[in-house]
Amino acid sequence: MSSATRLLGIVSLAMFGAVHPGIALAGQQTTLSPHAAQAVDCGGVQAEADQAFAATDYVRTATASSQLLELLRAGKATCSVDYAIALNNHALNLDKLRRGAEAEPFFIEALERKRAADGAQHPDVLVILHNYALMLEGLGRYSQAEPLFREELQLSFALNGPASSDALDSLSAYAVTLAQLVVRF
Q1: Residue 34 phi/psi, 5° resolution?
Q2: CB atoms within 10 A of CB 158
Q3: Is the pTM for the entire model greater than 0.85?
């Protein structure tokens, strides 16, 4: 079965509570009762998002990541996707499409959820901080990006050590933002 057919089946199931009789999902019957439609393996949607991102097709990626979030929010997904990471990835996709205003609430929620679930010292917090700060920087909102880059740098030093490539990348991003702030004043 093609990934497009699988994706169509998953979307049909998520939106209408049943799979169209002409579409069969692996491991699923072609006709489902409303109760059987409560759980969907979201691996196909995640794979679609990953493939589209690798192909730099951010419109397709954003569509798939939006579908994944809807499945997760509705509690219809059975997969190992971390909701905070799915939020981060969707925000990143929106940012790639230059839709930063739409992306920001997803970054904020991702950061809040990841900190609450795994603590402020988790490596995924570092990734979300970096992506969120880059988005703000791309929008010219340097004064809002600066504290996020500072926090990212401190966390990177704590997790990876000051000489690590991640810490040096964090330091570089922070320096660029500081330079932009200095130029503006």
Answers
A1: -55, -30
A2: 12
A3: no
For tokens 């006709």, what's the residue?
31
Report yes or no: 86 and 74 within 8 Å, Cβ to Cβ: no
Reported as half-sphere exposure (CB side, CA atoms, 13 A), residue 161 has a value of: 3
How far apart are the C-alpha atoms of 14 and 37, rounded to whole Å? 8
Residue 117, Cα to own-chain centre: how many angstroms? Answer: 16
Q: Residue type for 158, please? A: A
**pLDDT tens by residue, 163-183:** 999 889 999 999 999 999 998
How would you label 114-152 residue by residue, b for 16+ Cβ within 10 Å and e otherwise? bbeeeeeebebbbbbbbbbbbbbbebeebebbbebbbbb
78 vs 37, 39, 41, 50, 70, CA distance in Å?
A: 11, 6, 5, 18, 13
Degrees, nearest 5: CA angle 57-45-131: 55
